Amino acid sequence: MGWADHYRRRDALDAVLRDARRDPSAPLIVDPDVFSSLHELLLALDHRWQNKLTARMEAAALDGPVDEHRVTAELAADEPVLRAVLDAHLSLGSYRAVGMTP
Questions:
Q1: Is 43 within 8 Å of 30 (Cβ atoms)?
Q2: Could you say which DSSP state residue 54 is in?
Q3: DSSP states of 59-86 as a string?
Q4: CA dist 24 to 1, 19, 71, 77, 84, Å?
Q5: Per residue in 3-46, pLDDT tens?
Q6: What top-level branch of life does the organism fall under (predicted)?
Q7: 34-93, pLDDT tens digit by residue?
Q8: pTM score, two decimals?
Q9: What ranges do the domains of the chain cover?
Q10: DSSP one-letter code for 30
Q11: In a 10 Å sphere around its CB, with 0-12 CB exposed, 13-18 middle and 19+ buried, how is residue 82 labelled?
């Protein structure tokens, strides 16, 4: 993936999250020029969540033992739409089926 593709994916994810502010449980609009399916879109959203969570966990670890629940809760408070979209569109069983984590 080149930079142009990276920015198109980033912009498409941002648009999905902007639209989801009104109702995170509403059907998500998949841009077929960027994502081949809803599943691919959800994987990309989860990837965004995991990147943010990993960065926060690593930063917290610099100060000593990490309270994973606190760090996760802080991220959810800072990214409420992203967390709500993932929670609304993926059941716990779905997360496990595709190797994602809630």
A1: no
A2: H
A3: HHHTTSS--HHHHHHHHHHHSHHHHHHH
A4: 28, 8, 22, 15, 6
A5: 998 999 999 999 999 999 999 999 999 999 999 999 899 999 99
A6: Bacteria
A7: 999 998 999 999 999 999 999 999 999 999 999 999 999 999 999 999 999 999 998 655
A8: 0.85
A9: 3-92
A10: P
A11: buried
- Residue type for position 57: M
Indicate the length of the chain as a whole number.
102
Cα–Cα distance for residue pair 8/37, rounded to 1 Å: 16
Q: Which two tokens stand for residue 12?
A: 């498409």
In the numeric block, the tokens 């069983």 are attached to: 93
Distance CA 102, CA 18 (A): 21
Do residues 56 and 68 make contact, with C-beta atoms less than 8 angstroms apart?
no
Q: Tokens standing for 56?
A: 């926060």
Cβ-defined contacts of 53-58 (< 8 Å, 24+): none
